[in-house]
Amino acid sequence: ILGSGNLFIKPLLGTTYYIPVPIPRHAVLAVNVEAGYIHPISGSDLPIFERFQLGGEQSLRGFQQGAVVPVHPHTYQVFTDEFQRILGGNKFFVINMEYQFLQAGPAKLLAFMDVGNNFHESQSFSFQNVRTAAGMELRVFLPIFQAPLRFIYAINLHPIQPIDQFGFPIDYLKEKKSG
Predict the structure, then answer these.
(1) Are the beta carbons of 133 and 155 closer than 8 angstroms?
(2) Which of 27, 153, 22, 151 is closest to 101 using CA atoms?
(3) Residues 6 or more apart in contact with residue 99 via CB below 8 angstroms
């Protein structure tokens, strides 16, 4: 209708559940679950910029923004297109668990664990070989910003070194053990 050459569907689902915890006072256990899928219509290709890439404070903490791309499970080789560009996934899931246990004025201290992965079209959706990180976060709510300042320290529980189609490591996708 609008003249686009890209035809696809991209449903996204997400929910967050908060569970009050009596000890310590005002503690909260929060569980966030997100999933998505993208599928081309009428045999068209998926645009590279519409594919899923995870990482960063809004999906998988402890990973660089957009650095979690689909890899072969045993070799950690990335998927590329005919122009040798690294591809994101066509499906993903993320589970974020937080235990907010200390609140002092505008600051909250919490422990977290993030689990997730994304998958190439040739891969099936699986809870094996997931990317996981755990750590601590301090959120300070300042009215002037209308958003929290977030100080995150995360430990990557299984860092990997993605490699390109020729077997060379891709330095900017290398996962750090902590940060």
Answers:
(1) yes
(2) 27
(3) 21, 27, 28, 29, 30, 110, 111, 112
**Euclidean distance between CA atoms 31 and 17, whole angstroms:** 5
Tokens, residue 117: 């992965």
| Buried/exposed 135-168: b ≥16 CB within 10 Å, e otherwise | bebebeeeeeeeeeeeebebbbeeeeebbeeeee
**3-12, 76-85, 121-130, 162-171: lowest mean pLDDT where?**
3-12
Q: What is the mean pLDDT of residues 160-177?
A: 90
d(CA 67, CA 133): 14
| Start-to-end CA span in the chain (Å) | 46
State pLDDT tens for residues 73-125.
889 999 998 889 999 999 999 999 999 998 888 899 999 999 999 999 999 98
Distances in Å between the Cα of 161 and the Cα atoms of 108, 144, 166, 177 are 33, 40, 14, 11
Q: Which two tokens stand for residue 130?
A: 């997931």
Is the pLDDT score of 3 beyond 70? no
Residue length, the chain?
A: 179
> How much is the pTM?
0.90
24 cis-preceded (ω within 30 degrees of 0): yes
